[in-house]
Amino acid sequence: MMRRRTTLLTGCTALALALGATACGGGPVSAGGGDKALDGQTVTVAGVWSGSEQKNFQKVLDAFTEKTGARTQFVSTGDNVSTVVGSKIEGGNAPDVVMVPQVGVLQQFAKKGWLTPLSQTARRTVDADYAPVWKKYGSVDGTLYGLYFKAAHKSTVWYSPEALTAAGVRPPKTYDELLKAGRTVSDSGLAAFAVAGQDGWTLTDWFENVYLSQAGPGKYDALAAHTLKWTDPSVVKALTTLGKLFEDKQLVAGGPNEALNTDFPGSVEKVFGPKPRAGMVYEGDFVAGVAHDQYGKAIGKDADFFPFPAVGGGSAPVVSGGDAAVVLKDAKNAKAGMKLLEYLATPEAAAVWAKAGGFLSPNRKLGLDRYGDDVTRATAKSLTGAGNSVRFDMSDQAPAAFGGTKGTGEWKLLQDFLRDPSDPRGTAAKLESAAAKAYRD
């Protein structure tokens, strides 16, 4: 999640609550068949998750205990994983396993010498069951340290079927069709989009989808690594494209000022709450959890999604985020921690959380029937079916000072751009200045 994207959210649980102890398409999900080889040992796990996410992950840890005999202890770090884990290492109290929500943080940990490379068993599973892109994002300088357990599909546009039907609009296939459909929705009495501009990370996600589709994966990778400058014409072009939506008061609920005072949960409420203000909201698959759990929407009936449309003749983008499990080198029980990672790499482990809802796995061996509803199955199929065309959230790959800090860097500059999108070239120059400083430091 994933970092700030999902720590507040529950997942798409439309059918999971009704499933009880039985998984969709099979019997009870259980670790089962273990030899209790780790009986008496304790594995400590640190991660950003809280609330229902933490409870669902605990079900996975409990299944590991049932299989191996090892006890587990989960510690929620909040969003600032790097600082919390660093202080625990310095204090001689390092956890065994950390669920890392950012590629940049994983790289930081590896370069500080904090991480243990994945075992041969875990590496074999990743090679066999995951698209190579997940190995790439879990590796630093050719060494695989991170096992991606939970993923998010961040190229989904969520909508009210009632609102689109009333406007006579069908899910669009291109960005231009998206804007046209939005204006038609607006003519019917609702704004097209609820935009969560108060949370700068949502704006980075808007930009990343436009940029990946319009500029292509090669330039996306270069920009993410900052080997391509933000002043490149491709960036200016993407900002110009995004600006067409931001500047159109017919499209954004309440215009830029209201958008800048709307956080992510508030944007979902404007579409799926008791008093709808808009027909659509862009964000990841985790929108479904809020729509269902907060507003009782039946996923696939009262709330549905379409893929983020292709931009400028490019391919439809597939942007993802995710949480990678790593084992700390200074951990007191690193060997048992690595056994946990080997378990997390299996479809057996993924099935536990898939049954509970609010979860997507990058593991291609997890059967789609393990997910609780058709919409989640569709998002999972889109994610795993994209193979190497998936690209990890760009801001999560950047140093936190640029891509992950409230009130500074990319978050702040894209909020300024939402407020006034009239100067894409000037915004690109400011982004480059902030990026250059962050990557240099």
Automatic annotation (TrEMBL):
Gene3D superfamilies: Periplasmic binding protein-like II (3.40.190.10). Residues 1-23 form the signal peptide. Pfam families: SBP_bac_1 (PF01547). Keywords: Signal, Transport. Residues 418-441 are annotated as: Disordered. Belongs to the bacterial solute-binding protein 1 family. This is Carbohydrate ABC transporter substrate-binding protein.
